[in-house]
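hiii, so i know i said id send this last week but things got crazy w the move. better late than never?? heres the sequnce for the chain we talked about at the cafe, plus the structure i predicted for it. fair warning i was half asleep when i ran it
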Amino acid sequence: MNQTIKSPIAQLNDQLRRTFLGGTVLLTIGVQSLPEETQQALIQAVQSFDCFDEDNDPYGEHDFGMIQLAGQTFYFKIDYYDLNLEYRSEDPADPTKTKRVLTLLLAEEY
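okay and structure toks below
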């Protein structure tokens, strides 16, 4: 997929990742147990992440990333649910049918 033309899904995911608006943001127990400064640095790194390519983003959705910080490896991932948060969304490109959930986690929690 041409990474210069973003899909509607990538645009919605970028909005959530950069602003934490348009969905829910979850921090795993491992991330919550880190010092406040590390958590803030991780949030800043996620919001500024811009290293998507064909290797780490094969579907062009900007829904997953890896970050090295403070000697640890972190992931962020975005999942698409129906509005009741029960099932996978039938149309992740449609924000009226999709609830996005961004999770920040330690690599070992994956």
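btw Residues 8-109 form one domain. thought thatd interest u
miss u guys!!
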